[in-house]
Amino acid sequence: xxxxxxxxxxxxxxxxxxxxxxxxNRALQMEEALxxxxxxxxxxxxxxxxxxxFTPRLGAxxxxxxxxxxxxxxxxxxxxxxxxxxxxxxxxxxLYPLGSCTMKHNPRINxxxxxxxxxxxxxxxxxxxxxxxALELIETLAHWLMTLTGMPAVAMSPKAGxxxxxxxxxxIKAAIEARGEGATRKIVLVxxxxxxxxxxxxxxxxxxxxxxxxxADGTVxxxxxxxxxxxxxxxxxxxxxxxxxxxxxxxxxxxxxxxxAGAYFYCDGANFNAIVGKVRPGDLGIDAMHINLHKTFSTPxxxxxxxxxxxxxxxxxxxxxxxxxxxKEGDALRLVEDAEGxxxxxxxxxxxxxMGMFVRALSYAxxxxxxxxxxxxxxAVLNANYIRACLADLMSQxxxxxxxxxxxxxxxxxxxxxxxxxxxxxxxxxDEGYHPMTMYFPLVVHGAMLIEPTESESKASLDLFIMxxxxxxxxxxNGEAERFSxxxxxxxRRRLDETLAARQPILRWQxxxxxxxxxx
Amino acid sequence: xxxxxxTQDNRAxxxxxxxxxxxxxxxxxxxxxxxxAKAPDLPRHASEIEVERTLGRMAERNIDAGSxxxxxxxxxxxxxIPASVDHLIQRSEFLTSYTxxxxxxxxxxxxxxxxxxxxxxxxxxxxVANASxxxxxxxxxxxxxxxxxLTKRKRTVLSGGLHPHYGExxxxxxxxxxxxxxxxxxxPTASENILDQIDAGTSCVVVQSPDVFGNLRDLxxxxxxxxxxxxxxxxxxxxxxxxxxxxAPGAMGADIVVGEGQSIGNGxxxxxxxxxxxxxRQKYVRQMPGRLAGETRDAEGRRGFVLTLSTREQHIxxxxxxxxxxxxxxxxxLAFSIHMSLLGQAGLQKLARANHANAVKLADxxxxxxxxxxxxxxxxxxFTIRVKGHAARVIEDxxxxxxxxxxxxxxxxxxxxxxxxxxxxxTEMNTQADRTAYAAxxxxxx
Lengths: 520, 446
What we know:
The complex is a heterodimer of chains A (about 525) and B (about 450). Chain A is α/β, with parallel strands linked by helices and about 525 residues long. The longest helix of chain A has about 35 residues, at about 355-390. In chain A, β5, α10 (about 280-285) and β6 form a beta-alpha-beta unit. Chain A has 16 helices and twelve strands. Chain A has helices spanning about 35-40, 75-85, 110-115, 115-120, 130-150, 160-180, 195-205, 220-230, 250-260, 280-285, 355-390, 420-430, 460-475, 480-485, 500-505, 510-520, and strands at about 155, 185-190, 210, 235-240, 265-270, 290, 310-315, 325-330, 330-335, 410, 440, 450. Chain B has helices at about 10-20, 25, 50-60, 85-90, 90-95, 105-125, 135-150, 165-175, 220-230, 315, 330-365, 390-400, 410, 430-445; strands spanning about 130, 155-160, 180-185, 200-210, 230-235, 255-260, 275-280, 295, 305, 375, 380-385, 405-410, 420-425. At the A-B interface, α2, α3, α4, α5 and α6 of A face α1, α2, α3, α4 and α5 of B.
């Protein structure tokens, strides 16, 4: 048991390893209390010079309420966060096959360059004459993004993929309103297989969502789109390559039908990493597409952000792009920050976007070059197909035995009658030292397992992963339920009770006295 | 190509195993006329040295905040970042991990987020905080949408002390969603009458303190009027260090508190990535946007953490979600949390005092310059001066003399008719020499 301080009150239970430890640590795996349980209110890990006497100008606004935050000394701080970090899986530690998330290698040159004072220590509101190099960097990255996508414009300020979706859809809405059709075009078409952000984005800016069913082969048919189009439709939001890991083979036809109906084509670019240097989305007839710099251009995921989601735009949508944007004036670059007098739909965020991510993405692009980006796409697709081919005899594929793009999709039909679920299978992978694949997404595939190895894996790494997956799959087919039902056995935590967490939410630490009081 | 492990032999062998004749076989669903025969017309791959040179040249064209007397603020602040913060956030297990969807192997990130949420809630004197938003401005727009869901009303009142960019972000999304926004005129002396704008049709009132001009505002009367009318008070701050000395919005009756957390642990980065802080009352938590970490137990009864209340979120609720947000600002939140752990309340109070003292000393110095006046009665580490002539020109001329002297308000609001105002920030980074240099340069221009 743990006491209210999060510390053990007696020697630990016999875990699955069959060994007691007094501390409940297991060698390199350390239990770690919360900072609020170990810190002290008077402690600080920073020495800050006292400014001496002065007359405050706070008026009647001085803080009277408690802050109540303890501090840690520097050594305690280091140890706390190092121990926490050791409870995390990471790309640098192993293959991270999360489909749709693109957990590729994050080059460290990117981190080094983002920390150059001339790039990391500049203020967004300095005089523009003092940040011409920063504007040049943004322009250079913009040039790469436009060239790779074959699109004439790009909005750089969106802060993440979903923010980019909102940007593209707002540009579409502004274009439709400029045509005087804002009152009639109220529908956005979204396939069932789409990321949840697509319908959420459409709803956010006041559109109603009309779902398009997926076809039996996992792609969207041009006929289904044609059937759903009408004078009330503003746009379609379509992911390509799609969330089933397939290239939308009728995409050119779909784009033509959408345009013929007077609507716009928003392409979700989450999976652009499969086709960089191979296909230009602009050649397919799209009007807008966000690019997740944290996927395709390797900016680190950081445990859930920050991301960056620049949006490339067609000539029809470019005039409506948000502020700020960069304009060339002779030899100088000028940031246009005011929407007045332009057709821009407005501003999406304070300042100019995720500069820290731009630096990393440009560093990645320059390092790879045109040839390396193309090779990276090909290797990502090759690796995914290799895994697919090597598991196809044991695991079931929802759309038959066919080539995929950068991710291999399996369903759970092959687990039927084993009593083992996709979740159980995923948790058993953890014991084998792998982060699980994406599970239960896309929603249109039952018990989906979406595996994206990326181009960063060597063949030896893929082979060991494949052997492990085959061993697990054989085990599941042989009915060795225990290996799965209680898994993970060896992780820092066994399965966590998510129902309990949601039913009685504890979203912050409270002092033990406050907890006791609340219980009374 | 140093990042790609496959050899040509590997590739050939793998294609054979797959049963494809060539790599382009795998791209068989792409219409043939759309498949590029060769890589696009861009430079070929480059060594680390070459990439360092290219980006290094761009970096050299900028004047960085550490190389000049620096007084630029208005929503982003130059503070000291302890060496241990930047070291820790670069640990592979934090830097190169994904969103903690598999909690058994992501307890590091999840416990950190739980601690972060507790820190933000404590600082703002609110019940709960989420795992962060993109930044303060997008968080403000999310807060407005949340208020509309809670009140079932659609009219927002924006104070004239709100950062103009934040106001624009709210107006953009409101226009798209056909919601009403009343924007009060820019208010450099905190003398607006916002109470008269609040009525039974008001969904929320957005007030910033310290405001964009640096003034400290009493939120209590606004909170009282909001409560009487069934509206919600959204309190905004762009300088989180102020909470070490200035009364917390939660203690003054705010319903939702949104702020920019960049000042703690995060560099200027030319505007991003930053970290949006978002806190509210317990009773509103199910309408809150964004990720939340929560405490639970594992199968052996041990304390652990998971992402929770995800039925609010887009991957479950799709078009009925509370927001389309699909990320937080994880690594920036980590930097914030580490820096905050080092500070503790004792350190935060000292840091805030150092900031306030430096700003007071600077304001007193600048106020003595002919044709310069300080507008603020109260402020924390940022205040507004009125100068002779165009502030934007003065700031350019100061830059020419090697001083980055603040933000001309006209840059944020070109049509506010306040072309002679400069917003000046001073943090613990400024020295007496910086202040003297600023005063001398400004005096020379007046």
